[in-house]
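Why do we care about 3D structure at all? Because function follows from shape, and shape follows, mostly, from sequence. That is the central idea of this module. The next example makes it concrete: a single protein chain, its amino acid sequence, and then its structure expressed as C-alpha cells.
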Amino acid sequence: MSFKRLSLLVFVIAIASGLGACTTVVLEKTPLAAIPAPTIPLAPMKPVATLQPTTFGALPGWEIDDLREAWPAFLASCDVLGKKPEWTKACNIARGVNGSDTKAVRNFFEDMFVPNTVFNSDGSDTGTVTGYYEPLLRGSRRRGGPYQTPLYEAPDDLLTIDMSSLYPDLKNMRLRGRLVGKKVIPYFSRAELEQSGALAGKELLWVDDPIDAFFLQVQGSGRVRLADSPDIVRVAYADQNGYPYKSIGHYLVDKGEMTLDQASAQSIKAWFVAHPTRQQELLNANPSYVFFKEEKVIDPKKGPKGALGVPLTPERSIAVDAQFIPLGAPVFLATTLPNSASPLQRLTLAQDTGGAIRNGVRADFFWGFGADAGEKAGRMKQRGMMWVLLPKGEPSP
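And the structure:
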C-alpha cells in the first residue's frame, strides 16, 4: 500500500514538473497534461520567497489612484477571503467603511495592509502585463447557415484528479485525463478532438466564426448574441482538456510569418483570414481546449466569474499566478497603457488565473466587455511591477 501511495505521489509530481510551473484557469485555468518529467524530484518544487515588505510611499501613483473604483472588487474578494482567519478582521472592518469616501477608503488600506514588492523566481522585480476581455460572438442554438462552429460542453469522460487534500503542495495542480481500462491517460489534445469527433453530442451553441471561437477559449468566457432568440447569453469557463496553453502568436513568429512586435490578436486574426488552407494548422498549435457552460447575464456591467468565484470588475480585476500571489488579494499594478508610455497605475484585485500567466510579476489585466475592451486587450503587452497588499500581522507567503 505504501508503495502505491508513493508511486502516485511521484506520478503527480512528475506531471506537475513536466508542465514547467503551469491555468488560470482555474485553471486554465488549471492546465495539467500528463507529461513525464526527464527527472523526478523527491518533493514538489516550491517558488522561492517572492515578496518583500515596503511602504505605500514606494508605490508609484498610489496617492493619485481613485481607490473607490477598486472598492466593489475588494468587497467581492472579501466574500471569499473573509472566511480565512488572516483576512477576517480586515474584511469585517471593510463592511463598515463608506466606499464613496475617498479618504476613508485610502485610510482603510493604509491602516490594515502592508504592501509587498513582488519578485520573480529569478529575483527580478519587473514582468509582463497583458490584457484580456469578454468578447461578443454571434451564434445560434441550432446548426445552420453561417453557424457552423460549435462551442462544446465538458465531455462526460473528462476526469479531474485533485490531490491537494493529501498533498497540500499540489493545491494549484489538478490533473485532467480519461480512463482507459484501469489507467488514467492524458485527455485528447485539440487536434485529436477535431479529428476524432469525440465531442459529438456535446454542442452547447453554434457560432459563425472559427477564429472568434478560438479566441473565446483563450479569453476563457464571453457572451453570445443568439440569432434565434432576443437573448444574449454568457458562455462561461467549465473545464479544460489538461494541456498547457501554447501561444499561436509565438507559433507564427517561429514559422517566420510575422515578427514578435507584430504578434497581436488583431494581426493573428488577419493572418488567419488570409490563409484559409492553414487555419486548422494554426489552431492545432495550441493543444489546450476549453469547454463552456451557459449562464444568464444578470448584470451586464459585471464580468464573468474568475478563478476566485466572484464576478470580475472591468479595469480592476487581474489574473495572476496563484503560486506567487494569494488569490483574492489586492495588488497594486504599475504598468503602461497598451502600445503606450502613458502610466497605468492602480489598485487591482487578483481574482483570476490563466494558462499563460506564470511567474510572480505576471498579470493579465481584465479590460471588460465588448469591442473597445478587445482592442485594448489585444494590443497590451507591457512591462510592469506589482505589489501585493497583505493584512498587517500576517507573514509574507
